[in-house]
């Protein structure tokens, strides 16, 4: 085929090799470069079609080597069918991830604005090269600069659907200063294959946000699965299965202890937890504010360390009675499964702000190795419907290492 050798190279190359971004009307189409950093093409699409437009990140492999921070989206539909791989230049990400205020955390990808959708059609894959992060982190707790995979920041009226995450760098998703956010059909898995744990690869965390729906998720994460943090309200979480996780959690909140934080109106229902630390629980620092009107219902689980747990002094396990962060009107209904040890519930409320309006109905928790489970309670209303078997000591730990 000597003839072909005479043609200019660009005529022979298949179109898919051509990198970059093309704009047709209000539609920006992004195709992968092959091996270069694709974040400039994606940022170009956000710039040219992020307002009153559509963005198609077509199928194929994309490399993301730079922070993507876009806070000006407006009336925009983003479709992703490709695999986005955040590269493993740890020093770059530690220096350049965007701060998100909360506890000095930061993020690799941040979206904000009004009226936008992010749809992955069950095809989009976010790969964070997490194993590199887990190995260099060496089981430290919160490493500054270790980036959250996706953050919604000052976002309003947003729908995210059909995205798969594998091996994220840190938390999978964070929603902050946002309102009316729906996140459906998300599939997440952070699993370390070395001696070092994933540590802090939460599925979802909210902060200073309201009106959020989370539905149809499957999460394996080694840390909190769905975690509702300070100043969050009206959150509905439904049909989520969590493996190796902290399942459904309010908190941590109340830190710093001189700033009030509030969580109101949260419903968790139709939840399954497998081999997890806890199932339906609340953790606060000895701070100020309140947790009010929370429902955990239809929660089923297997082999959970301490299924129901409440602590006013998480992690330090000291000054528990100094907490003024009041917990009230919390219902646990249809909570069933097996506990790893002989404790079904450990509930310690602060003497400084005892729990009121706790209600329990249809609680059926059996130790996985047989026998009956203890239910330990302190400083809570006596008409809760819970058959407490003893008092819960102050500073009772989140994770048990054997029978009590
Ligand atoms: C977002 O959508 C709502 C409801 O359709 C509309 O009222 C609002 O003006 C839109 N916001 C922007 C910035 O276009
Ligand atoms: C909430 O966001 C959805 C998109 O997920 C939108 O359809 C709906 O109109 C928004 N609701 C309000 C009250 O703006
Ligand atoms: C998560 O990934 C690990 C490692 O690949 C795998 O063993 C596990 O089955 C996955 N979890 C789910 C729920 O698929
Ligand atoms: C619950 O979510 C799973 C995983 O996304 C999905 O396969 C299943 O259809 C959902 N169930 C219901 C009742 O929506
Ligand atoms: C939570 O909201 C309260 C009341 O609006 C505010 O005083 C406090 O600073 C907020 N806390 C955080 C951590 O943003
Ligand atoms: C309690 O929270 C649920 C779930 O968000 C909400 O539907 C309900 O209206 C709230 N109840 C009160 C009394 O605010
Ligand atoms: C609790 O479970 C029972 C039996 O499965 C069911 O009939 C009832 O509707 C459930 N309650 C709620 C509030 O979903």
TrEMBL record:
Superkingdom is Eukaryota
This enzyme's EC code(s): 3.2.1.67
Keywords (alphabetical) are: Carbohydrate metabolism, Cell wall biogenesis/degradation, Disulfide bond, Glycoprotein, Glycosidase, Hydrolase, Polysaccharide degradation, Repeat, Secreted, Signal
Q: Return the GO cellular component terms, semicolon-separated.
A: extracellular region
Q: Where does this chain mainly localize?
A: secreted
Q: Where is the signal peptide?
A: 1-19
Q: What is the catalytic activity of this protein? A: [(1->4)-alpha-D-galacturonosyl](n) + H2O = alpha-D-galacturonate + [(1->4)-alpha-D-galacturonosyl](n-1)
GO process annotations (BP): cell wall organization; pectin catabolic process
Q: Check the record and name the PANTHER family matching this protein.
A: EXO-POLYGALACTURONASE, PUTATIVE-RELATED, PTHR31736
Protein family: Belongs to the glycosyl hydrolase 28 family.
Task: Tell me the function of this protein.
Answer: Specific in hydrolyzing the terminal glycosidic bond of polygalacturonic acid and oligogalacturonates.
Q: By what name is this protein known?
A: galacturonan 1,4-alpha-galacturonidase
